[in-house]
Amino acid sequence: MEDSNDGLLLNFSISDRPLNTPTNFRGGRWKDRLNAKYGARYRQKKIASRLNAATSGNPNTNEQGSDLRKGHIDANDTPRLAKRQRVEDPPQQAITRHPTTFSRSAEKTENPRQIISSLFSFNPASNTVTDQEQNDATPTEPSNAPLVDGISTFTSLGLSPTLSAHLRLKLELKAPTAIQKAVIPELVKDDSDAFIQAETGSGKTLAYLLPIIQRISAGKTGSASNLYGDGRVRRGSGLFAIILAPTRELCRQISTVLESLLRCVHWIVAGTVIGGEKKKSEKARLRKGLNILVATPGRLMDHLENTEALDVSNVRWLVLDEGDRLMELGFEAAILGIVERLEKRSQLTKAPAPPAGSLPNRKVTVLCSATMKMDVQRLGEISLKEAVHLKVSPSDDDEVGARFDDDFSAPAQLKQSYAIVPAKLRLVALVAVLKRAFIRRGSVMKAIIFISCADSVDFHFQIFCRHAIDAENNAVSSAREDRAGEEKRLPVSKEEPTDDKHIGMSTIAPATAFSTPDNRVMLHRLHGSLPQSARTSTLAAFARSKDPAVLVCTDVASRGLDLPNVDFVIEYDPPFSKDDHLHRVGRTARAGRSGRALIYLLPGDEEGYIEILKESYRDGGRGLRRSNTDELLKKGFGSPGIGSGKDWEEKATEWQLEVERWTLEDPKHLEMARRAYQSHVRAYATHVAAERNIFDIKNLHLGHLAKAFALRDKPGSIKISGARGGKETTKAGRQDNDTMGKSQSASKGNKRQRGNPDVPTTDPAGAAKMKAKIREHMASVSEFNIG
C-alpha cells in the first residue's frame, strides 16, 4: 500500500496462523504474576513447535511422534493439551483401540463433542503365567461341614435331651461340626481354661455357648441364695457368663444366636451392652438382672467403673471371642482391667470340684481365635491359666503356649480366583463381574464387596445406585417445591421436618448399575462411620433378604458374622494383611456350603500376592484360578451371540464416560469422588510391613487410578509419606489439604485409640476414660476410616 503523504511503500506478509496477542497479568502477588507469565510463554512455545512439526509433514519429528503417541494432536493437527481426543464418531460406531490408529476420514462426522476415553490404551501387562495344571483341581470335601459319621450327636456330647431336641427340631441342626465335637464335651465336664482354634464358618459360637447354657440350666451350685424353690436359675440369681466381642455387629449376632438357643430354657435371661446404645436403658437391664451378658470391652469397662447395678461377683465364665481382633483394635488394656476387676470382685471360694455339668466353682476363661499370632499369645498370658488347646483332632500334648505359629487356612470347598486388572479398568471390571453374577435370577443370591475405606464405600454405593437415588432426590425436591407453594397460602408449621438430611443418605437402594429387568438387585452399604441404628438395620435387612442383594462394606463385616446365603465374596481392594483376607473370604462357604471368592490385583508388584493366596490352601494353591480381565469385561458388557467382536469395549467405554459425566455435572458428586480417591490412596499406605513390598505406594499410578473413581484428572495434595509425587503444592494445595483436616484428625484419633501412650492430658483418670470411649467408638471400625 502507498502512503498519500510521503509515498512510503509498506509490504506485510501475514501467514494463516492466528496472531498471538500478549497477555497482561494484573492483580495478585508478584510471584504469581511471574509464574503465570512464564507459563503462558512456555505454552506458546510448545504450540508453535507442534504446529511447525505438524505442517512440515515429517513423520520422524520426535515431538510430533510423542504427541501422537500421547493422543495430544487431534484430527486437524490442532494442538491439544488434554490426554483425550475430541473426535466426531457417533456413539454407535466402533472405537479404535489405540489412539495412534485414528484416521482423518473417520473423524470427520457431525458430533464434535464425543470424547473417546483412553480406557483400553497404555495399560500395563501382567507378568504372571497361568499354570493350567494347577487350575485343574479336583473338588474337595467341605472342611467345616457337620459330621456325617452317624455316631456324633449333640446328646452324645453331653447336652441334655431338651437342648438337643431344640437344636434338631427348631434350629435344624442335626449333627455337630468337628470343632463342636472337640469343644463341647471338654467345657461341659471340665473347668479348665480353654483356647479354641478353628477356621471360619465351623461353628465356634455354638461350641462355647451350648456348654454354658447346659451348665446354667442344670443350676447345681449348692448355694441356696442363687436358686429358687424349683431349683432353676432365675433372672435374679446373678450374672454367670460374660462374652466379649470386638465389634458391635458381632455382639448382636452372638446375642441373636443366644436368644434362639434360650427359647427352650426361657428362664435364663441374656442381654447386651455395646457402644452406640443408650446407657440408661442398659443400666435398667442390668438392674433387673441378667444371667449371660454379651458386650464390647470398652462399654463393659465403662459399666464396671460407673454402674453399681452390675454385680460380677458370681461370674463363672469369661469368653473372649475373636481374640486376635480384640488385640488389633487396642483392647489389651481394657481386657486386662476387666480381668483384674473380675478377680477382685469375685466371691467364689476354693471348693471341691462340683458335680459334672453343674456351675464351676472357679472362673473359666475361654479364648477363641481363628489365628495364632503373637498378640493372641499375649492375650492368653493375660487371661488364661493352665489352659487346654482345643481344635480339630488335637494332639495329646497340645496346650496353649506350646505353639502359636499354626497356619490358618480357608475352607476346603471355597473356590477362589484372582484377576489382574489394570487401574483404569477396575471400576468397569467390577460392574462387569456383578452384571455377570446377577444376569440370571438364582445364580447368585447374595454377594459382599470389600473396600478399604468408608469414603470409597459411599462413592461406589452412589455410583451403582445413582439413577434410583437421583430419582428419589428429584421426587423429594418436587414435593418440597409443592410444599413451598402451599406454605404461601397456609400458615407455616414450626414443627414440620425437613428432608435435607435424608437426600442420598439411604443405606439401601436398588442397584441400577447391574440389575436386569428380570432380576432386581438391592445394594446395601456398611461401614464404621454410619450411625449405630443404620448399621444394625442395614445388616439385618441384608441377612433377612430373600431377594438378590449386595453388601458393599469395609472390614467391619469381615469378622465372625454369619450372613446366610452369601454365595460370592469380592475383594475389590486387597486386604491389609493375610489374616484379613482369610476372614473376608470366610463370609462364604460356611457350614459345609459352597462359595466362591474373587480378589482384584494390579499388574506389577501386586502379583506377588498370589503366592500368599496359595499359602491359605491346603493343597498348595492348586485350586486357585485366574480370571482373565478381557473375559470378565466381555461376559459383563458383551452382547449374546457375538463372537470376537469388540462391542464390549464400546459398551464399557460408554458406561465409563456416563459415570464421568455424572461425576462432573454436580460439585457434590465430584467432591465425593475426590475424597474417595484420596482416602483410598491413604489406606493403600497402611498395609502391614511384611507385605509393604507388594503394595508399594511408590509404584501406584495415580493418574490411572483416578479413572477407577470416575475422575479425568487425579486430585492433588494427597500428602502420603513415601508417595511418588511432584513438588509440594502451595496456596491451592494448602486449601485442598484444609478440606481433609477432619480426615487427618480421624487418622490421629485412630493412632491414639490403638494404645499410643503419648496422648496429651493433665488428668490421668480422664485420659483413661477418654481412651476407653475412643476404643469403644472405633471398635467396629476395622477399615482405614477416612472422614
TrEMBL record:
* Catalytic activity, EC: 3.6.4.13
Cellular location of this protein?
A: Nucleus, Nucleolus
Segments forming domain DEAD-box RNA helicase Q: 152-181
Which is one GO molecular function term here?
hydrolase activity
- Gene Ontology, cellular component aspect: nucleolus
Point to the regions of Basic and acidic residues compositional bias: 66-77, 479-503, 725-739
InterPro entries named among the record's database cross-references = DEAD/DEAH_box_helicase_dom (IPR011545), Helicase_ATP-bd (IPR014001), Helicase_C-like (IPR001650), P-loop_NTPase (IPR027417), RNA_helicase_DEAD_Q_motif (IPR014014), SPB4-like_CTE (IPR025313)
Q: Where is this region: Disordered?
A: 50-146, 476-503, 717-771
**Domain Helicase ATP-binding positions:** 185-390
Q: Does the keyword Nucleus apply?
A: yes
Say if the entry is tagged with keyword Nucleotide-binding. Answer: yes
Output one GO BP term: rRNA processing
User: Which residue intervals define the domain Helicase C-terminal in the entry?
Assistant: 485-632
Residue numbers of motif Q motif?
Answer: 152-181
Listed under catalytic activity are: ATP + H2O = ADP + phosphate + H(+)
Query: Which EC class is this protein assigned?
Result: hydrolase
Record's keyword terms, sorted: ATP-binding, Helicase, Hydrolase, Nucleotide-binding, Nucleus, Ribosome biogenesis, RNA-binding, rRNA processing
Compositionally skewed regions (Polar residues) per UniProt: 52-65, 93-104, 112-143
Its annotated function is as follows: RNA helicase.
- UniProt-listed PANTHER family: RNA HELICASE
The record's similarity note reads: Belongs to the DEAD box helicase family.
Q: What free text does the record give on domains?
A: The Q motif is unique to and characteristic of the DEAD box family of RNA helicases and controls ATP binding and hydrolysis.
Descriptive protein name? ATP-dependent RNA helicase
